[in-house]
């Protein structure tokens, strides 16, 4: 029958379009029913998730090591050890005494941004999955749906310190744990590590805001929200209406409002257009997105007021009841910062600019013996930094694969560059190099910092508004709110209510369920080249473009309004705004010159101190950094050369790291004198020949001897008379 109609269509020019129209109508009506059936199933998933107690959305099984709810100052956090995904079994609650692992342990922390924990390990291609594949013992710090009443960020910080100390105790011979902090968990990791500098090893901060005021005019408007709403009082009000708890569903709604075209047009249409293949992916992601967790009023207020509005973490002014101020300059171990230019929640400026403010100069970074590595993705969004398969298989794989190597980079600032591997020389899909960078490279990502002066009056006005709210309105609201009214409001939040009405609890969804069952057995999708199907897609793209244009106009209006209010000199009079943006770097201290002079004397004395180990590391570090680029292979070869030589094979890793940092500083301060002193350190001709031979081997490790490397090798051979 259909072949007969096709022959008729060939003879009648309009008949083909008519058949396309029929095919499209059948397909579109079927997709409509299937679309609503997917939403119905998601509503059922939502109820089932609540019935299960809102567990983490982890793909991997785990066992609890420490439960923060049992601490002297209880918190709704727990430390768990991830088990290999090939092992089957449910969660085990038992005390663990020790683990037999030689690799450095990795601790992953997800943000408390309104949703359930587990996004970093929600599927095979994830941070946790990659770390397990690479043989690391992997731990995860999760949190439970409801916080302990009265818990504070200080309590959480202290609990996380206990967790990391427990991981270090379980792996005493594996090096300090490396910590991966995602989004808001990143600043928590930085804060914790600055409070206890010797606690952890390399830190990886993915999409983590620390410079909250930074951004590019015309692009990053999220930073203006607090100023346009009057500050922290709105969060206080929401917490009071929640009987002392802040509902994470509010944060989910706020995130969706940042990009309405994606949230309300492109994403739903992608499900509708590909309902036959996208159903499971949509339900998996939505199970996490609709997992709304709570925070205490104390936690959300501290976070919004002191971090987002007052920017105290970058300024080194965060302090808790114990009185100690947290200064990020106290960070000791390597830091890897991963951000994306397509991230409108945490743009690269907010993830990187704090480096400039905290250390002031690149020389100060090197003087503090710090290694800082950054990488900026071209276009992935904020959530994509953590859930994208492509990002996981490329960026996260290489970041985690470099955790044990970044400790051996010379102190300084680097950009991590990932390029496709050459199958002729390696089976690895990608090749990693670390390119030396200057502070100007980070400054060039921004359009200046003058606009940050507008945020000083925002902080002052926020404090004034908060004082007024606490004095005149808060007592009345708290007296009227009950736990029952707070629960009623949470239950009827649009994020929850819309999912409830689409579940089977609503009798109106029964026809959808029955119709979808029939349609799946008689599915008749229209072909991709159907002209009406293509027109539908173009129409949705056009609608999304109109929504994006409207969003850009709204953002421009908000930015203009913010500038009109807070750039006003009369408004600035209410603040303690400085003429220049502050830096946490101390300048002009009376003892600074004397201290630096003593430091120079110390390093100058070390030029001729030592023996074979110092000379070997000095030469290898010089060759590796001769061209300003260090390949991952060079670090691997450098370590193999040191560990396989009879005179340095017994050096512990900590001593090798110390030698790399010391010799790097000597080469930085006195490059010529450091080379000229090699004969003093290497008196034996056999040792000199051995060092030169290993230097040549290192230069060839990246398959190409750079002209700068060749020049340096010739200079070393001349000095050592080899």
UniProtKB/TrEMBL annotation:
InterPro entries: AB_hydrolase_fold, DjlA_N, DUF3141, PHA/PHB_synthase, TerB-like. Gene3D superfamilies: TerB-like. Residues 614-722 form the Co-chaperone DjlA N-terminal domain. It comes from the Bacteria. It holds the Pfam family TerB. This is DUF3141 domain-containing protein. It comes from Desulfobotulus mexicanus. The lineage of its organism: Bacteria, Pseudomonadati, Thermodesulfobacteriota, Desulfobacteria, Desulfobacterales.
């Amino acid at each position: 029958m259909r072949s007969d109609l096709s022959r008729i269509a060939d003879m009648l020019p309009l008949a083909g379009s008519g058949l396309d129209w029929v095919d499209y109508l059948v397909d579109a009506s079927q997709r409509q029913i299937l679309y609503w059936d997917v939403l119905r199933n998601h509503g059922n998933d939502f109820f089932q998730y609540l019935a299960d107690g809102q567990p983490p959305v982890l793909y991997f099984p785990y066992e609890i090591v420490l439960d923060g709810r049992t601490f002297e100052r209880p918190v709704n956090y727990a430390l768990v050890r991830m088990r290999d995904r090939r092992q089957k079994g449910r969660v085990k609650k038992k005390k663990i005494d020790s683990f037999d692992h030689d690799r450095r342990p990795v601790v992953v922390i997800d943000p408390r941004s309104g949703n359930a924990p587990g996004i970093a390990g929600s599927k095979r291609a994830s941070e946790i999955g990659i770390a397990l594949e690479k043989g690391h013992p992997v731990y995860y710090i999760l949190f439970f749906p409801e916080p302990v009443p009265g818990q504070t960020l200080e309590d959480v910080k202290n609990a996380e310190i206990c967790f990391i100390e427990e991981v270090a105790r379980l792996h005493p011979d594996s090096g300090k744990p490396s910590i991966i902090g995602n989004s808001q968990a990143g600043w928590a990791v930085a804060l914790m590590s600055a409070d206890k500098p010797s606690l952890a090893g390399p830190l990886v901060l993915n999409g983590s805001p620390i410079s909250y005021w930074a951004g590019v005019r015309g692009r990053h408007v999220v930073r203006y929200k607090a100023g346009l709403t009057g500050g922290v009082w709105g969060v206080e009000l929401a917490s009071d209406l929640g009987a002392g708890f802040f509902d994470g569903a509010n944060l989910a709604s706020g995130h969706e409002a940042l990009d309405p075209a994606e949230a309300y047009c492109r994403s739903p249409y992608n499900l509708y257009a590909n309902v036959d293949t996208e159903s499971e992916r949509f339900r998996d992601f939505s199970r996490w997105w609709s997992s709304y967790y709570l925070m205490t009023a104390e936690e959300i207020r501290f976070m919004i007021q002191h971090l987002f509005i007052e920017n105290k973490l970058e300024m080194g002014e965060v302090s808790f009841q114990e009185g100690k101020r947290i200064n990020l300059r106290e960070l000791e171990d390597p830091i890897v910062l991963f951000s994306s230019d397509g991230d409108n929640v945490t743009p690269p400026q907010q993830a990187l600019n704090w480096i400039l403010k905290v250390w002031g100069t690149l020389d100060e970074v090197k003087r503090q013996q710090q290694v800082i590595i950054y990488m900026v993705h071209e276009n992935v969004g904020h959530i994509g930094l953590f859930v994208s398969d492509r990002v996981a298989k490329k960026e996260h794989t290489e970041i985690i694969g470099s955790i044990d190597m970044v400790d051996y980079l010379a102190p300084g600032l680097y950009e991590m560059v990932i390029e496709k591997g050459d199958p002729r020389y390696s089976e690895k899909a990608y090749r990693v190099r670390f390119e030396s960078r200057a502070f100007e490279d980070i400054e060039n990502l921004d359009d200046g910092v003058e606009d940050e002066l507008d945020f000083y009056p925002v902080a002052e006005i926020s404090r004034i508004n908060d004082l007024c709210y606490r004095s005149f309105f808060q007592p009345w609201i708290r007296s009227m709110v009950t736990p029952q009214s707070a629960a009623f409001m949470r239950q009827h939040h649009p994020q929850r209510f819309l999912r409830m009405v689409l579940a089977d609890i609503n009798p109106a969804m029964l026809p959808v369920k029955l119709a979808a069952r029939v349609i799946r057995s008689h599915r008749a999708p229209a072909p991709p080249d159907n002209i009406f199907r293509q027109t539908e897609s173009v129409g949705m793209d056009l609608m999304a473009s109109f929504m994006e244009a409207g969003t850009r106009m709204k953002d421009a209006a908000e930015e203009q309004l913010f500038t009109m209010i807070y750039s006003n000199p009369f408004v600035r009079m209410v603040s303690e705004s400085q003429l220049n943006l502050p830096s946490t770097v101390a300048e002009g201290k009376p003892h600074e010159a004397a201290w630096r002079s003593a430091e120079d004397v110390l390093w100058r004395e070390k030029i001729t101190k030592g023996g074979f180990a110092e000379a070997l590391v000095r030469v290898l570090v010089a060759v590796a950094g001769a061209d300003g680029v260090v390949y991952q292979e060079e670090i691997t070869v450098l370590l193999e050369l040191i560990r396989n030589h009879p005179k340095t094979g017994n050096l512990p890793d900590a001593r090798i790291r110390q030698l790399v940092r010391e010799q790097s500083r000597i080469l930085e301060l006195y490059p010529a004198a450091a080379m000229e002193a090699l004969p003093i350190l290497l008196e034996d001709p056999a040792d000199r020949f051995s060092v030169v031979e290993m230097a040549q081997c290192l230069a060839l490790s990246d398959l190409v001897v750079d002209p700068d490397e060749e020049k340096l090798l010739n200079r070393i051979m001349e000095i050592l008379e080899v």
